[in-house]
Design a protein that fits this description.
heterodimer, A: alpha+beta, Nuclear Transport Factor 2, Chain: A, 2 domains, 4 strands, B: alpha/beta, P1 Nuclease, Immunoglobulin-like, 32-stranded parallel beta sheet, 9-stranded mixed beta sheet, 18 helices, 17% helix, 28% strand, elongated
Amino acid sequence: MKPVIKKIFFIVMIPSAIVFVLLVTVVIKDVWSGYKWQRQVDNWLDARRKPYIEDTYGGKTPEETWGLFLDALKKGDVELASKYFVVEKQKEVLGDLRESIKLNRLQHSIELFSHQLVKEEADPPSSIKAYYHLPLENISGEREAYPIVFILNNYTEAWKIFSI
Amino acid sequence: MKKIVFCVLCALGIGEALVAIVGTSLAYSPYYTHPDLTEEIAQFFNFKNTHSEYQISQSQMQWLRQGAIEEDDPPRWINHFYDPVHNHAWSGKHFGTLSEAEGLKTGTDFAPRMPLAAVDWATNQNYQAAYGQQKGNQTWQKAIKSYIDGDKKTAFVALGHVLHLIEDSSVPDHTRDDTHAGIHGDPGSPYEDYTKDYTNLHKLAVAEVLNTNNSLPFSFDNLAQAFDHIAHYSNENFFSEDTISNDEFLGPNLTQLKVVHHILPDGTFRKYLSNDVSHVAFIKVDDILTGKKKYSIDDQYFVLPSYVNRLFPEIVLTGEGVMRLFFREVEKYKEHPELLEPIVPDSNQSLTRAIKSAPKLLAVNAYNWYDIAKTHSSVLAHQASVALGGWWGAVRVKLGLADAVARGGGGELVPGVQQPVVSNQVVTSPALIAPEQNKNEIEKRSNQNVAISKVTLPVIQSVQRLDNNDKNSIQTLPALSTEQVPTLIKREEIFFSTSTQPSVQQATNYAGGGGVFSIPSTLSTQQGGNAITSTGSASDVVTTTTIATTTPPATTSVLATTTTSTSNSTTTTLAATTTVAVATTTPAVTTTSSPVISDIVSSTLSTVTTSTPTSTLVVSSTIVMATSSSSVMSSTTSAAVPLAGFVPTVVINEIAWAGTAAEYPTDEWFELYNTTDQSIDLKDWKILVSSTTINFKTINNTLISPHGYFLFKRTRDETIRGITADIIYTLSGGFNNKGEKVELVNSSGQKADEVDCATGWFAGDTVKYRSMERRDAAKRGSDPSNWQSNQSLRVSGRTFNGGQVYGSPKQSNFGFYSLNYTQEGTERILTPEGNPYILQYYQIPAGFTLTIEPGVVIKSYFADAKIDIRGQLKVNGTVDKRVIFTSGRDSEFSASDVATRVGNWSSPAPQPKDWQGLQFYPGAAGSFRAVTLRYGGHAFRPPDGGGFTPTVEQAIRGEQADITLDNVEFNNNSGTSLFLKNASSTIRQSNFAYGSRALEAYDSNLLVTKSSVSFFTHTQGAFYVRGRWPILDELSLSDNTFNPPYLDAVTVAGAGRIGSGTAVYITNLIVPAESTLTVEPGVSLIMAPYASINIQGSLFTLGTPDFPVQIMPYTSSEYWGQIIFNGSTSTLHHTNIQGANHMVRRLPENDGMLLIKNSNFSCDHCSIVDTWESGNNVYSTDSMIEITASTIGNNRKPSFSSTGIRVTGGELRLNDTLFNNLTYGLYGASASLPNLVVSGITTENFINVDQLSEPRSWFDSWLVPITTTTTIATTTTSSP
């Protein structure tokens, strides 16, 4: 190789090679970071999904869920009863159920909850919620609609109680 | 390598998925709601700027949509909040169980900067540029600059970003700093969930409706103004789920919201908070488990549709204003490019840094796993395809992150949603549906796989107002009664009367000598007679004058008629040539006195034919009677013959052929009425309009109940808001305003009814758009006289935009007239035909008169129902037919079905405060005769008061008004029955019962006579007057907590009087100079502690021995002040004055039960006794006093010094007067002893008086009984 060419080779190619190697390193590093991140994301997503995927409590219909909820209450198993609620509300509901026991309201609550659920139709129908109410007689003797809202757990296809 | 690249791309894809996941629920749906709303804005802009060069093309529309979608790329969303009240950005509040700081950290941990308020974010280039990997700088400035530079795509994408921010500034969660994350116990945003579902399933049509309604767009000077407008609108009028309180924001003001009941299909009700225009929240019943009360906006029937129905149009109007502003700014900066800021380039974050940020985004959205896992999987595909192209979409499907199904666009038809029937009183009103004119366009769109959308917006029909004191008191409107089937016309009865007795001329002259002659005792009408002497000489025959009366006799018997059945058709209108033969029986003739009238000579009977369809025929007959000289005919008698042919079953009862308003001429409707006692199924019945069968578009119901109504609405249910249509129909062209023939055909093909208005409608108009109402269901529909224009508004039924409907849809054409709004004509008369009238808020302007006829009943179903009178109100009841103002719960004056509807109140029994009352404003006048007014008195704030003025309860309030009451009964009104201020009122023969006060009058001219007041509870008088002395005559008060009329600081003006026997309680009374007060016998002036009477004019008491006048304290221990005569001329007869001289500050110069200065005073047969502590019974200064046959002193000798009469100057005449239990009988001022004229007084007139006079020598001469009148000259003596 002629010295001039050899000189040009070293002046141009070596820096280029170094830059190339650096770029490749950066890319590999980024890709590796991306891969690791992806696994982190997957794990994170799985952790978030897990309570919902494992949350099998609930019926195929809101009415069925409600019946299961009532059965649990009648047995006095408030922990089980709270499981028929959406995951993020179970703790709060369990607290409320326990408070209702303290306030001596549980039995009365069961009687009220035992009324026939009435489905509410509307336009447009909600994609994720189902609205119902209990027709309860208030202290003035009037029949008032007590709202109950259900939500569908798409992972398990089970209906959960969203609010009462 | 491929695998690595694949993994990298996967990571990117997952990041994008997360973007999609997060973006889905942090605002309006970024994939449907936001772009759809943005498109509506652009479309409305095009409508309003048809000649503008800036009309938005389809491709520009797509760029706007793109920008609207991309603005929700996380973490941009943290800058989408704007609290206009406190002027700050998202703070992390209301994030479930997280604290504010925790919430903020969770949301901003991954963001390049802290959150900005949306109004600032929209124009802050540096901030936006920092979001280099999340679309970077998409500011307002960039949009303008790009447009000017010719890069329309970039410009419209950026503008789409800005419009997204405007749209988010309508979301209450965003303007009330409510995180609505949906995790960590946060309930999320029911409003956003609802709009997401809504726009997922329906195509919006907001722009079209706004354009059809000629809605005026907004105009903004700058972008911040637009943000402020929409953000304030959202913040002040709506709640978010976590901010239903006034802790942070004053609006909506919970204390000013009304609680409304709505009946759900199963008969239960739900309570809503409402502000007259829409529902803002509903009240969850007390939590069953814990008993806590909660509010929520998560209601799909009323609240959320209300929100959408108001916010969506506001967004479009605001957005259109923003777009016009944008193009104005483009023009401005084209001319002045130097004013435009340079565009800040995006900072490029490293790819990996951006990706690393992604997981933290998930922390705010775990709730939506349900959402994204299934429902929005198509969204992910959509997003994927939008973001990275179709290939990426396939990759995502492969990863199981998306379904293969896409929404819309790909040819999938989304069916329309059947309107659910919530209740008979709830209407779904599609504010967003396209109007009739654009029907074809909508149908075209339908063919393009979109569905027509509807938004439920019920109109408040039943309004409940909370009683201030009774939170359980509620009331709702009654159901309206069914129309009573009218009775048939009675046949007339015709009578005979007899003629007068014929006169018989008596022969008075006879030939020959006197004698007796006889005359036949009876003479027939046609016979003559003569007198015959005893010798048989006969006079000329005398004929009677005609007995036939000139008055035609009337017949007494009934004109009986029958119809021949064969000539009648049972179902169809009689043809023109049909004759009806009517047979009659000859009426019997009776007489009441002689002579006998001959038999009826003849009678004629009319034969009637008709060419006009009619339900009755009038048959008449004429009877001729023979008389002696002329035939006298009876008057023609007639009877109406109801034709058996017309047997109404279901009839056309009302037709609103003109529409409901000028803006809604196509909002036609009509109703049917079932005259029978059975339900009738109208399935397969037909309605023909000029031979065209109307098309039933939506059938909600086919059954018409007994005596019930059936409502047809044209095209849409919102034709009449508040009342659901039984059937929605279509009819090309609608009703012709010039007339139509409308036929009702039953399922057997027979015509059930017909209204032939082919040559013109019988009633109704295009001025007020009044409907045509049938008067009588039993009469034929084609009889013009059987129709009337709508007589009055009703409570229920509103036009599309909430205006008044001049009709009575699905209710009786009579009765239940609404008294609401401002009176339209200067003269209006209420007749019993409208009973019961439903009072809401009625106003009579100045110069207008409302006259109420006898028998009218006005009922109120609203706590603040009232009539404001600025003109004149004349209520003219009679003794037999009183006019009644009462509560809706009062079943005593109402149809029975109205009474049954009161069950929705907390109790069925009417109570005080069920309604407000009548309010007379300055210059108004009212006259009430034979009126009953009860259960009123709901609290209100007086009109002249400010925000802190306490509320009052007054059934009738009159301020500077003239009110007369005659035979008026007030019963069970809360507070004060009649309140007057600077008013004039005459009250006669009226009774007030139950309440706090019967009357309260301030500075008013008041005359009360022959009236009673009982069972009032106010401790300061059931009858209270302050300011002007009233004239009270035969006013009876009994069984009140404080019985006597309470006259508080009253002044007599002119000639005042108080009628005999009246007792009044006085705190202070002034009779000024030139005025007179005459007190009649038996009056008691009961004086309040320290009370005084100040006479500068004249006081005349006219007591009698049997009925003296009493001036005394209220209780024996509460002494009152004094009577001051100053420059007065007064005379008291038979008046007992007791227990006074107890002033707040008593000085020697004003010490006296009677203080007389410079006056002429005389009294006879009076007693002036019992002075308070040491004092004078009478203290006279420079006055002429004459006291005759009176008693002065004390009932018991007090321990303190007391003087009967202290005199300075003037003259004192004493006649036969007794002094007892005193220290001094007379006390003269030594410096100026008065002239003293005495008669009939000896030492025996001084009983238990320590010293007869002071100075002693003044009366030395009285130590010897004096039998004659002696005048003692005044001498000056030195003081003792």
